[in-house]
Amino acid sequence: MYSKVLTGAISGIESLIAAVEVDVSTGMPGFEMVGQLSNEVREARERVKVALKNTGIEIPAKRITISIFPADMRKEGASYDLPIAIGVLVSLGYIPEEYVKDTLVVGELGLDGRVQPAKGILPIVAKAKQNGLKRCVIPKGNEREGAVIEGIEVIGVTTLEETIAYLTKSEIEKYAMIEPARPIIRDKSENEKESEVDFSEINGQESVKRAVEIAAAGFHHVLMIGPPGSGKTMIAKRIPGILPSLTMEESLEVSTIYSVAGMLNEQKALMTQRPFLAPHHTISEQALAGGGRVPRPGVISLAHRGVLFMDELPEFRRTTLEILRQPLEDKKIHIARTYGSFIYPADFMLVAAMNPCPCGFYPDRNKCTCSENEVKRYLNRISGPILDRIDVTIEAPRIDIKQLSANMKNESTKQIKERVLEARSRQERRYRNTRYRFNAELGAGDIRNYCALGMKQQELMEQVFQVMKLSARAYHKIIKVARTIADLDGAEQIQEIHLSEAICYRMNDGKYWNGRKDA
Asked: Which pLDDT belongs to residue 294?
């Protein structure tokens, strides 16, 4: 007898509906599986047979052939166990075929018949709803994750025996046995939770705090340069607190990435706060970009819609840093492997920090012990194209002892965030019904429409372009940063004072790298 059970599959970050086709016939006994299967999927044969036996069901001596559709896609993971078991039972007559109609089944089986949690449940349930299915039978451990998607029944099961009992009941009896999971209602207060760290704890560094406020308001990339102990890391860790809260759409995007990576847990099924990732400088290219035999999201994708903090930037390997080129520009990363080509989202705010030289005190020659060649080699670890993609570069000078020990009343994270949100609301109104959300996202072709300059402002930019030998990208970034500064000031038009401040955030490129853009 032939049967078909619907299940879900993950390809990169995308999900799709797959089908487990089972045929049970007379002939030479066997259990064959086809359809570009990985070792984990092929091993399902033994897991399913033993799980059925321990559930009290013996498979008769017949020829069982299983195909997982689409046949041309590589199948990975153990989440096909449960649909394979259910497909075999439907073909053997234990479960009526009509009882699994419009139902998606996914889950890993233990040898004792327990249903184990699986990766990627959130996007799979979303795809099931999109395809008009009625319900999803998923592991109990993934129930809250699946319940994030409204408009489809999500049934959490703990064992194969419970799954069989549920599927063999009528619709009325099903509801009496297992009530569908209640949709997760997003708690907006989670976005407003006070962080353990606050800007009010930082004395001094007003220029740096101003720079990161501008960066947060327009989602610009920022680089802080300063000696050790000047507060760069402290400031970076507080940036997520002043960023606008995630929208529901953004929460689902971020949660989907974490679901595919297997990093969502039962207690936190929906990401409600912007991610903050701070990889160590020894991180590999694969871990940063994503990869593996079948690629999984890397750190830059896990930082999607949030902050990627790279401390001690020159200490990262040059090849690792160069990976940032594409995502900083295109907001996504393309990974090609033997089993396919995958595109992962990577729309993050880069926050980087570095010392100006190996000892950390350049250009103060009274303290710096590095030779000119050592300084040059150190700075040259960061290529010109990477520098060109950073919007705001700011110096973090050494803190004075009087500032450090003073009992100062500094602005809190809440106060700074209020200004950031006001600037953000202006951007929302400006870019309504467009693909843009922040000033930093503006394409070169739209800058003239949204960042129009007057005669004086244009003359200033032409002069700066010639004197500073700017690239076209750097020229546009100055204008976009100036647009954000104007938004923070509540100005409709970009003024010379806004451009002047934005230009200052490019001056350090020339100070440390002598205007180099092609290293």
From this structure: 67
What does the radius of gyration of the chain's CA atoms come to, in whole angstroms?
A: 28
Instruction: Check: CB of residue 308 under 8 Å from CB of residue 299.
Output: yes
d(CA 367, CA 157): 66
Q: 119 φ, ψ to 5°?
A: -85, 155
Alpha-carbon distance of 406 to 178, in angstroms, equals 62
CA-to-CA distance for 85 and 100, rounded, in angstroms?
13
- Tens-digit pLDDT profile for residues 250-296: 999 999 999 998 888 777 788 989 999 999 999 999 999 987 766 78
User: Is 168 in the same domain as 200?
Assistant: no
C-alpha span between 33 and 226 (Å, rounded):
60
Q: Give the whole-angstrom CA distance, residue 325 versus residue 37.
A: 34
Write the DSSP assignment of 115-143 as a string of letters.
Answer: EEP-TTHHHHHHHHHHTT-SEEEEEGGGH
Q: Which helix (H) or strand (E) holds 11?
A: strand 2-11
Amino acid at 358: P
CB 355 within 8 A of CB 444: no
Where a domain ends, among 122, 145, 177? Answer: 177
- The answer to whether residues 439 and 484 touch, using CB atoms and an 8 Å cutoff, is yes
Which residues lie closer than 8 Å to 475 by C-beta, 6 or more apart?
461, 465
Alpha carbon distance 293, 295 (integer Å): 6
Query: Is the confidence at residue 197, as pLDDT, over 90?
Result: no
Write out the residue range of the structural domain in which residue 98 sits.
Answer: 2-177
497 φ, ψ (degrees, to nearest 5): -65, -35
pLDDT at 517 over 50: no
Buried b (16+ CB within 10 A) or exposed e, 235-254: bbbbbbbbbbebeeebbbbb
Residues 6+ away with beta carbon under 8 Å from 293: 337, 338, 339
Give yes or no for a contact between 87 and 107, defined as CB atoms under 8 angstroms apart: no
Query: What is the pLDDT, as a whole number, of residue 518?
Result: 42
Helix ranges (H only) for 32-120 are 39-42, 44-54, 81-92
d(CA 444, CA 109): 52
Q: Which of 423, 441, 459 is the last residue of a domain?
A: 441
What's the CA gap between 275 and 306, in Å, rounded?
5
> Distance from CA of residue 472 to its chain's centroid?
29
Cα–Cα distance for residue pair 24/22, rounded to 1 Å: 7
Write the secondary structure of 182-224 as one string of H (helix), E (strand) and C (coil).
Answer: CCCCCCHHHHHCCCCCCHHHCCCCHHHHHHHHHHHHHCCCEEE
Alpha helices in 23-80 (DSSP H): 39-42, 44-54
Please count the structural domains in the chain: 2
